[in-house]
Amino acid sequence: MKKLLLFSLLIVFLFPLDANSQSGRIKKRKNKKTEKNATKEPETKAKTPVYTDFVKKDTKTAEGLFKVHENKDTFLYEIPKSFLGKEMLLVTRIKEIPADLGGGYVNAGSKINTQVIVWEQYKNKIFLKVKSYNAIANDSLPIYKSVKANNLEPIIYAFDVKSENEDATAILVDVTKFFSTDVKAITGLPAYFRKTYKVRKLDTDRSFIRSIKSYPKNIEVVQDFTFDADEPPSNLSTNTITMRINQSMILLPEKPMMSRVYDKRVGYFSLGNVDYNSEALKADSKRYIKRWRLEPKDEAAYNRGELVEPKKPIVYYLDPATPIKLRKYIKQGVDDWQKVFETAGFKNAIMAKMPPTKEEDPEFSMEDVRYSSIRYVASTTRNAVGPSVSDPRSGEILESDIIWYHNHLRSYRNRYLLETGAANPSARTLKTSDEEIGDMMRMVIAHEVGHALGLPHNMAASFAYPTDSLRSGDFTQKNGIAATIMDYARYNYVAQPGDKNIRFIRQLGPYDHYSINWGYRKIPNIDTPEAEVKTLDKWIEEKADNPIYRFGGERFDPSAQTEGIGNDQVKASSYGIKNLKIVAKNLPNWTSNQTNDYEDLSELYGELLSVWNRYVGHVAGNIGGVYEFNKKPSQSGNIYVPVTKSKQKESLNWLQKNVFETQDWLLDQNILNKIDEAGYIETMSRYQNRFLRTLLNSKTLKRMMDAEVIQENNYAAVDMISDLRSGIFSETSSTKNVAIYRRNLQKSFISNLNSLMNDASVKNTDISSIVRGELTTLKYQLNSASKRAVNKITKYHYKDAIVMIDAILDPK
Q1: Given CA atoms 623, 629, 630, 636 in this order, what sign does their dihedral have?
Q2: Residue 273, pLDDT above cutoff 70
């Protein structure tokens, strides 16, 4: 008991139990906390960012369409509120490129994407949206709401509103992340490149904004992007693709240019939409041509028929990288169109200039969308292109960049030698004169300018001239070799040795004047596209019976073939091959004997085969061919007219002689044993089989059978295949041995018939019946021929062919 009492007193001594014990201590702590809080200053709210937090004294500001502010590596757009909802064009193009990206057909200046964009505000966000013009309706009509609801515009990026300017008329957004990360909508590396080069990701440490410049009507952004890629197009060991991209944002005109209705009887690039304004029982599909906005300075004088300068001419700036000796030819290729535009009532409508120097204009840039250019690209690609950027609301061409690849002139030199060398002594050299090369370049540039003006290829134009007129010096000097520069009629291969004063190189023609007048002449007192149609129809119908003014380019139409000239393909190709035989015989003298090596001989022999292939193709196109003459119902005559039976039979006979008979002149041992150790047989077989496939093609045969229905005395498909068989197997009617090229050809014929039998599209047509009948007949021929064959390989060949036929007729 004493011990327990002593312990209790000890506890009391150590832990006094008074009024301020347990509950009292808690109360004291609360009071202390309250006192502490009472002495602390009240918390202030977070400060709202203001304009000067972003635009400081040391901020670099560029004035223009939007103010662009730069703080070290941060870029901000100051977007005027008046520009929210306004339509702009965003053009993504390559500024600089790694070697071999795109296989040689993508280069510095290539356009990757074009899209209409709008900036819109929603609460404290700014959305960048892509707008489409595939479907349209007036906003005053009820259906406009449905068009909007069924064509929701995608948001490609959302920006936080950072602040407003001092008078609250503009909004600040930070665009740094948008332009320095991999945003697919504006990428310079599309999906097919990513797949080809096995691109993994963008490396943000090696990607950044190089510059943003603001101009009065556009903003130009230059980005450096580096991607990790397993199979880059060049520098494989780096596993890297680095490219420089240019983004052009262009303010579209407040009032779109009045469109001009597209008409397939005159060639123009076009754009279309579905118009829901129509009161008809369905929406209208409408198309409008692409063209520059040319407006006369003096409209009254223009309407009186006087030549008038446009308010804003079309100006092309030459790339400073263009070799000096070539500049005048490029300039001429542009300026040649001045005379053409005079037909449409405009003088000095188009011109080429050298770009201003740094002193004249330090801000000038070839990427600035205000300037059109002709770029000279250091590339081994042999080509030139003439793309343009247009307003999708109206078809107005806003800018274009024609691209010339450095090695393209080599192709022109080679073809000049091959196609004109027999009749043109100045072409018989590898060192073509500067003037002739310059004239070729001038015409290529003129062709590409035509594209940039809105004109597509017109392959029917070369068919307008009688073939024999191309052997006349007076005719060719005046009219050229085709009715337009927009045809692929590069050289006069018809002219023969001894023909005098011949023009061998193409030039602009009467169709160019006609099409530019149709597309660009301003029609007075007209304020809607539809109101113009009556006048436009009249211009076409006035010249409808003259082949010089015809437009065409369908593959099934033999009068509209690539590289053809003259209105008789059989005659033109006969002249061409006659010349080519002379060239082939002299090719070593004009190449290897001059250079003391075989590189040029090998290159030109390969291209000689391609030239022969083109000449043959022009004739083959007649078989199963259908001419297309575009018309409106107000015009008389049919649109589709099959090639006559006599022309088709003539063409097949020509092919038997110039293709399916072995072309020994193409197998010159003086050439072949200098350039390759083997492959001659395979090469010849490949070309011959190409034309067998052309003739024994289901589409060709179906057109022939359709023609039997709509035209009397047509060349029937069954007769064509029978004639083809008789010619290819002509040896079976004699004791003649079959040479190796013919043996291969005959096997190819059987293989092509087998392909037709297995073509699902012919199962319920006469084609399968014809094939079966021809194979049965051929088997009988081969059985008879095999009994009288002279040499062993011919006998073996016939037996083998019979086995092939049996396998087709009875696969089991």
Answers
A1: negative
A2: no
